[in-house]
Amino acid sequence: MSSAKTVSPNLPAFMLLNEPLLAFSSSHADALHRHPLMGLARHGAFDSASFGHYVTQLRVAYVGPRSGVALVRAMRDSLQSSQQNSDKSPYAQPYPGFKKLFGVDVSRGDGHVLWPEQLEELGSGETLQDRIRAGIFGALQRLASTREQFDVAMVYFPDRWLPHLRTKEFDAHDELKALAAQLDIPTQVINDKSIRFGNLGARAWRLAIALYAKAGGTPWKLAPTDGIPADTAYIGLAYAIRRAENAAHYVTCCSQVFDTEGGGMQFVAFQANDVIEDLDEARRNPFLSQADMRAVLTRSLRLYMDGHPGRPPKRLVIHKTTAFTESELQGVRDATQSIAEVECLEVGSSSAWRGMWMVAAPGKQPPIKPHGYPVPRGTMVMTSGSSALLWVAGNAPSAVGGRDYFQGGKSIPKPIVLRRHLGQGPFDLLALEAMALAKMDWNNDALYDPLPVTIMYSQRLARTISNVPSLPSHSYPYRLFM
After folding, report:
1. Domain end: 214, 246, 275, which one?
2. Are residue 185 and residue 154 in the same domain, yes or no?
3. CATH number of the domain within which 202 lies
4. Which of 166, 189, 209, 381 is 20 to 30 A removed from 61 (C-alpha atoms)?
């Protein structure tokens, strides 16, 4: 008989990070809240005091078939008044009205473009895709001629068109965003699903926040956090692959160096110089050469300095979803020699880990039992000296006044995996930043996204570039792609 002892495996101790605070005023330091909708209802938008000085009314133009005019107008007008929220979760909030939230009214703008009812008549061209593209481009050109008469264009795609608007080779939504970005026209796509959505309060929240952000407003920012220097900047990298002159090239999409508050949301669409020799390998594990990484970071940091009186950041955190190669890290070092602290963090969303939250059960056998809700949001487990599991999704009672709340309400949330490839700062600070940046998506009314916006936004632009290779390699405000 063997005398070997059985060893029980143990995970490292976990850490619970606090729910990050959001700021809702540039002049009142106490205008803070963990809940984005409650913060807006209580304090108004972050820049509402100044927004009304240059936008007295948020004017909305219409693009679409005549049959949608009344439907979209009713949807827009519903934003003016308060709306009840039929969602029973503790996160849901009644919608108080656009002017109460943002200090201005939402109204009809000029420059409407009416499309024909039949998709085939939208524009000229040999194929249906050519006609759709021509119709979108023609509408945007007409809007550009009256650009000073509206702030955002609502574009209605009826359900009967949808089978032809997105195919394996074509995506009308991405075509619209790419063409509109080149003309500096913010757009809000409307379909029949959003028009018919029965929860008028939730619909109003989502549409109101998106319209305000697309018109140039700032609904909220990140609150200052102990341990994070004020001159910290964030970059998110994602890769798109497209062909040019029979050669495949990378295009790196860089969400502009966010500042410490999560502001300055601009993209750099960067065309890499090195030709891809193995396309399958590139799709599986995309990376940049040392020279291309140095070039894209140099360009991105220049954008940051343009918005911060020529001052470079003192600390830089770079996120991407794949591992940093040694050549990429050397490119980072080349571009950031003047920055004191640089962190390169791989953010993975395909973790196989799952967790169950256990609570004490005094007097019971066994003495612990599963909690009725998932692992708390903000749970971090170090798996090595340079990697950790972080539950960005999970139970978030501190955001809703102490009641249990799991966004979505279904499934077992999986953690994201954070792997550090360069840097030496506190790991819990990197995790807290990832949690906070997951609350900076102004295109919905949720508490958080599954990934930080550094990743979500750059991936969104990468997808657009993949579908619309003609998009020039310029810098763009993110609001044009929301």
Report:
1. 214
2. yes
3. 3.40.50.2300
4. 166
Residue 187 reports pLDDT greater than 50: yes
Give the strand order in the sheet containing 475-477.
Answer: 14-16, 379-384, 387-390, 416-422, 341-348, 315-320, 232-244, 247-258, 266-275, 475-477
pLDDT in tens, 378-416: 999 999 999 999 999 999 999 999 999 999 887 889 999
HEC readout, 299-327: HHHHHHHHCCCCCCCCEEEEEECCCCCHH
What range does the domain containing 314 cover?
A: 222-480
Listed in sequence order, the residues at least 6 apart from 148 whose beta carbon sits closer than 8 Å to its beta carbon are: none
Peptide linkage before 366 cis (omega within 30 of 0):
yes
The reply to whether 54 and 171 lie within a common domain is yes
Task: Please indicate, yes or no, if residue 9 is contained in any of the structural domains.
Answer: no
pLDDT tens column, 227-280:
888 889 999 998 877 655 555 566 666 666 677 665 666 777 766 666 555 556
Higher model confidence: residue 263 or residue 119?
119
CB atoms within 10 A of CB 189: 18
Which neighbouring-strand residues pair with 17? Answer: none
Q: Please report where in the chains the tokens 């900076």 appear, as a residue.
A: 440
Q: Kindly state whether residues 299 and 168 are assigned to the same domain.
A: no
Task: Classify 262 in phi/psi space as left (phi over 0), alpha (psi -120 to 50) or beta.
Answer: left
CB 97 within 8 A of CB 82: yes
Query: If we measure between CA atoms, which residue out of 457, 408, 417 comes closest to residue 437?
Result: 457
Task: Quickly list DSSP for 19-66.
Answer: PPPEE--SS-TT-EESSHHHHHHHH--TTHHHHHHH-SEEEEEEEEEG
Length of the chain: 482
**Residue 219 CB neighbours (<10 A):** 24
Alpha-carbon span 106 to 13, nearest angstrom: 51
Maximal CA-CA distance, the chain? 88
Burial class (CB in 10 A: 0-12, 13-18, 19+), 74: exposed
Least confident of 277-281, 337-341, 362-366, 386-390: 277-281
Q: What is the pTM of this model?
A: 0.91
For residues 101 and 58, the answer to whether their CB atoms sit within 8 Å is no
Distance of CA 243 to the CA centre of its chain: 27
Tokens 């209802």 correspond to: 41
Domain boundary among 192, 214, 236: 214
Identify whether 6 is part of a domain: no
Per-residue pLDDT band for 139 (boundaries 50, 70, 90) equals very high
